[in-house]
Design brief:
426 residues; alpha/beta; six-stranded antiparallel barrel; 23% strand
């Protein structure tokens, strides 16, 4: 049974004709605050009682069904009775509509958390500070002569920098994505989209991912989770996701730790390799296999190449800790504690990059993400063998303020990279 997720807001729910307020839920459980009737305490639901329910998810969006009172919780102030309910029945497409709502709330919750909380690994650094580039005291050059340009998966970039995928699927996420796309277009950077799982569940969310009109010339990566391939996302779906956003490549992300901590996460990771291979051979664009903050080992890099992917993103530890973020979202102390336990889990990015480059040799395309925070980190990643270095959190936080803030960040990163190349004699 899935654990409930804190919603951050109340969702109205009618329980056997009485208005109540849902503060946390999953597909199988609800946590509801029911206003108490002072004149008739006997009217309060009892453990084991079956109730009709109607969740009001938004204008014209309702989910009806049956629920059983599993337990009575500690009552919040204000004359409420807290009920823990087990959902026993939903109307015909109720699970689909509830799943889509949860997905959108998950996206908004992620954005709220990463915008305002310390969500990075607590003790494990990405490893960039251990990388010392050579210093040339007499460069005999001009920094403006440095050529930062490169190509990746057939697209020309003005610099080896990727605005890595983090978000999509909500109005706020769409605004951030469009702002970042304009920045990528102006500076000549690559860009990745956040997971497009939400588009599969609700095609109306396409607009939050569609940024090609803002950035006709950039390298653009579509994105889907590997585990979704065993939960109904087909190779045809992947082709559609790529086509609808006019992407140059598809990133398939690996996030097993996040899924284990996520209250509604997908726990069955068996037999994914053949499904990934099917997508690789049929999607019609290059596929990038990427981790999301726990790192790829050298052995995993070799497996990725055997599966036919065109590039990898090592996605190492030292930056945003998604398992920890899922602990923030959880409504129960168990998941919160597990998120904290695994906050530093994984392979530091610099170590993952070193392993993968050694395993794959000099020619296989590698992206380095995870704790990249400025242009010097980009230079260090390139020095260790990455073709591109990407960052998500700094760009998201800047774009969440304004497009100008994101542009200023990108401009500074490129100047820092230029200075590093100049001082290293590159």
């Amino acid at each position: 049974m899935t654990s409930p997720v804190e919603l951050g807001v109340y969702v109205p729910v009618v329980l056997s004709g009485r208005m109540a307020f849902c503060c946390a839920f999953g597909l199988e459980v609800l946590v509801v605050d029911l206003p108490q009737r002072r004149e008739d305490d006997s009217a309060s639901p009892q453990v084991g009682e079956s109730l009709t329910m109607e969740l009001h998810l938004g204008p014209g969006r309702r989910v009806s069904g049956l629920a059983t009172v599993a337990s009575l919780g500690s009552s919040p102030p204000g004359g409420f009775q807290r009920l823990h309910l087990d959902v026993t029945e939903l109307d015909d497409d109720g699970e689909e509509r509830l799943s889509a709502f949860l997905s959108a709330r998950r996206k908004d919750s992620h954005l709220d958390i990463v915008a305002s909380r310390d969500v990075e690994a607590a003790h494990t650094r990405a490893g960039w500070d251990d990388v010392r580039l050579p210093h040339v005291a007499l460069p005999e050059a001009h920094p403006d002569d440095a050529n930062l340009g490169t190509t990746f998966l057939g697209r020309a970039l003005a610099a080896p920098v990727l605005i890595a995928g983090m978000t999509g699927g909500t109005e706020r996420a769409g605004a951030v994505n469009r702002a970042l796309a304009r920045v990528a277009q102006e500076l000549g950077l690559g860009m990745g989209l956040g997971s497009q799982r939400a588009m599969v569940e609700d095609p109306s969310l396409l607009s939050s991912f569609r940024v090609r009109a803002e950035a006709p010339d950039i390298l653009l990566l579509a994105n889907i989770g590997a585990v979704q391939l065993s939960h109904g996302v087909s190779a045809d779906d992947c082709r559609r996701l790529v086509g609808e956003v006019e992407a140059d490549a598809l990133a398939i992300h690996l996030n097993p730790l996040q899924e284990m901590i996520q209250p509604e996460g997908d726990r069955d990771w068996r037999n994914l390799r053949p499904l990934i291979e099917t997508v690789v051979t049929s999607v019609g664009v290059p596929v990038v296999l990427k981790e999301t903050g726990c790192g790829l080992s050298g052995d995993m890099a070799l497996l990725a190449r055997e599966m036919g992917v065109a590039a990898i993103d090592v996605g190492g530890t030292g930056g945003t800790a998604w398992g920890f973020i899922e602990g923030f979202r959880a409504a129960d102390e168990q998941h919160q504690a597990m998120g904290a336990t695994f906050r530093d889990w994984g392979i530091p990015t610099a170590e993952a990059l070193d392993q993968c480059r050694e395993a794959l040799g000099p020619d296989f395309p590698i992206i380095a993400t995870g704790g990249v925070r400025h242009g010097l980190d980009v230079a260090r990643a390139i020095g260790l063998g990455a073709n591109l270095a990407g960052m998500a959190l700094p760009f998201f936080r800047a774009a969440d303020v304004s497009q100008d803030a994101a542009l200023a960040l990108g401009t500074r990163i490129l100047e820092e990279l230029r200075i590093a190349m100049f001082c290293a004699g590159a």
